[in-house]
């Protein structure tokens, strides 16, 4: 007699979301922020939620934590954590569960941390509110957490203010706060978006280690497919509030079925140049920088030594007409400082900056002002750099009018630029707050072009954008450059993006240029140890998006 094997019991999921729907206020683009969303997270696994801005990723994460805005209420579905429906619990019960049963790492730690408390006080507060680790145990637990997340000298750093720490260190503090009471579920909402590749790799490694050692369930919200390839066990893809695809990381990344997933993967920048070298690159030198120096001195006092930082140290390079020069490196490498020096937003300590053959470094503001129109900047955060009280038309016209262009001519040029950056004519009379992040970045590009510059400095101008919007903005920059023959300095920490748009790259480390050359040379045969370290730290570097392309093409032919 053959006996049937005893079935192995399947543990129920740690978190189970069933048919969750969250309605938006009437009058918006769509009726629901989240519509009929269902997925599970089991203990010991990482589920990545991916999609563009507005897809409902963060909304569903906030619903789990009970942190939705007051005007948004789940109108249907269940959120079961250990078989308890969180939607049926009162605020007091939810408050007790936050930190103890579930915890969240927010996208921007500087905004999430209290600037008026030291980081040690904020971590200890989590334990105090929940009456955990009383007495000396709280002090030991605090130092243990700081050491566990890899922060140097826990005894000293606990007394630091958030603004004194780097972005990666602040994110580690947020992780320590989330782990203080060892919750079963950890939600990470875009925790690595603004970090450079080496810091990003450290944070991803830390989260993966914590998940393994603690057996936690992790919900990781991101728009970065490299991060998904690096860390995910399973993936859920969201579009306009709906889960359109769900499966293992191999199924979703290498065999995508839904057209939306296919479009997202097709938009992921490859680590190879898609740009043909500009035929005019190098033909005419627009900018020549020679032995540029910039030093910052901070601190100092009766018992403290001054801290001297060589932000830019003996940097030399040229930029030709219609050429794109990329500057890459970690945070603090001196990339953005170079951009500020070129626009004379900060004084330099030595060197020359020859713009069209004239050294602009020693020029006083009164003499540099007429030249400022020819050197323009596209900033990292378009919302912070656009005046929310001014219409788009005024934002585009103010600069030219201040430089003597008649109002009627400036307004005509502004409308032409809106068409050039593919925005509706009605955008002229609207305000920045009415546009998406990608659209605001297009406004930032139009504003830079309004002055008819010969050189544009783009400082991390696509770092916070979704892959599809990022691809659109990069395509737009290439087309504008080809049409108007503008030289471009593209500052970024994203090596894939640099490969897509740049003719040449400068790799910076601690204020110095350690390597330069075309992208193919930098990525295929890096010479400097630091360049090799940057490339090795890229999340998902072993995943090839092109492996999914035959499947995408086959799916489209079948359809």
TrEMBL record:
Organism encoding this protein: Variovorax defluvii
Entries under Pfam families matching the protein: ABC_tran, oligo_HPY
NCBIfam families from the UniProt entry: PRK10419.1, PRK11308.1
Family recorded in the similarity comment: Belongs to the ABC transporter superfamily.
Protein name: ABC transporter ATP-binding protein
Cited SUPFAM superfamilies: P-loop containing nucleoside triphosphate hydrolases
Domain ABC transporter, chain residue ranges per copy: 15-265, 287-535
Annotated PROSITE patterns: ABC_TRANSPORTER_1, ABC_TRANSPORTER_2
Keywords in alphabetical order: ATP-binding, Cell membrane, Membrane, Nucleotide-binding, Transport
SMART domains in UniProt: AAA
Keyword field contains Transferase: no
GO molecular function, one term: ATP binding
CDD domains: ABC_NikE_OppD_transporters (cd03257)
Cross-referenced InterPro entries: AAA+_ATPase, ABC_transp_ATP-bind, ABC_transporter-like_ATP-bd, ABC_transporter-like_CS, Oligopep_ABC_C, P-loop_NTPase
Source superkingdom: Bacteria
Protein's UniProt keywords contain tRNA-binding: no
